[in-house]
Amino acid sequence: MKFPGRRQHKHYFPVDNKNPLTNQVNRASQLVRNYIVGIDQTLVDIEAKVDQAFLDEFGLQRGMSQVISDDVTERLYNRLKDEALVNYEFAGGTIANTIHNYSVLADDRSVLLGVMSNNIKVGDYAYRFLSNTSSRVDLNHLQPVDGPIGRCFTLIDDSGERTFGINAGLINHLRPESINEELIANASALVISSYLMRTQPGDTMTEAAIKAVECANAANVPVVLTLGTKHLIEKEPEFWREFVQKHVNVLTMNEEEALAITGYSDPLQAADCCLDWVDLVICTAGPEGLYMAGYVDDKFKRETEYPLMPGHVPDFNRYEYSRPMRLSDCEQPIRIYTHTAPYMGGPDSIKNTNGAGDAALAAILHDLSANVYHKRNVENSSKHIQSALTYSSLSQMSKYANRASYEVLVQHSPRLSRGLPEREDSLEQAYWAK
């Protein structure tokens, strides 16, 4: 596993480097590998530029995410192809994107659970999904189905507003018996999205996801939930509050989803509210940057070297150099927060916002998984005197997440095609040094 982020460090990582005491590679020891598991609705993203008349023709509500029928899907796709309106076709799905990005950043294994067409032809949707997914992502646990996977149309009008048309295909037919309990119990984290709960009568995806979550809870494996879309959350905010409080350890969202579940428009206030339910919160806030909130035991708190920042919580970044912990592991818990402005002020030209939040979450998952990897292989390290949830401080993770999301913003694909640069030519190394 690669070291999470790019900065100076004193701890022994990666653990397969030379032993710092003997300066020799210890070939007798067998490294204990770890992985994360994600459950998703396997689909292909199709992006096109259209006008309002086009949306009206196919009965699509501007700016909304909506399910479309098989008939509308075929007519819509053929029309886009015939008029050469398609800009890009990529493997998609918010969790699949996250899992792929994790494997690219960590250069290590992840496992994706979902469905896949039994019969795959070169050039079809299933083929595009497989060919655009990292070889480090283990797809051997996908459940075969006799039919198509999903298709998500991202239709962009002249103002830049995005309208989503989703054809589910058989993406919600993952069965509970396809969930490998042992696989979940030995994972470093289980990653799900709110989309898994948006199913129709006869679908089995929700039951499968709940089974996986309950397995993770029973095995004390962190459950990570990304809220996905505000429209889904604001329909049943009370359900989501209860679900998060009962099952989730790490919650990730943008400012609109944060408003839907908490009622607070201020990202910091929303993140603070969510700490009533979970151990760690990630809230992306567009051009404002990224907020994170968590817990640390009083004896492990570390003060920042940066100026203190005002906000809903006065001087909220005071302990941002602390490594977050589960609330249950804290004897005297203290809430910690951090904020990072967009990397380099944000890109000059944003090519695509789809997947930026997925890349940020992938960076956080890399850090969480790196902590498990390091602990299993260097268990006597002073790093693990503290029972931390992550390898790095809240501040460092926020920088890493911002840097990863920047890579997606400056490209058309919602997925990373390579890891972060070994050298940051456009930025002082001091960005990573503290």
Automatic annotation (TrEMBL):
Reaction(s) catalysed by this chain's protein: guanosine + ATP = GMP + ADP + H(+); inosine + ATP = IMP + ADP + H(+)
Span of domain Carbohydrate kinase PfkB: 91-294
Gene3D superfamilies, sorted: 3.40.1190.20
Enzyme class: transferase
InterPro entries referenced in this protein's UniProt entry, alphabetically: Carb_kinase_PfkB-like, IngK, PfkB_dom, Ribokinase-like
Enzyme Commission number, as recorded: 2.7.1.73
Keyword Nucleotide-binding assigned: yes
Coiled coil: none
GO-annotated biological processes: GMP salvage; IMP salvage; purine ribonucleoside salvage
A Pfam family reported for this protein in Swiss-Prot or TrEMBL: PfkB
Family from the record: Belongs to the carbohydrate kinase PfkB family.
Descriptive protein name: Guanosine-inosine kinase
Source organism (scientific name): Thalassotalea euphylliae
Lineage, highest ranks first: Bacteria, Pseudomonadati, Pseudomonadota, Gammaproteobacteria, Alteromonadales
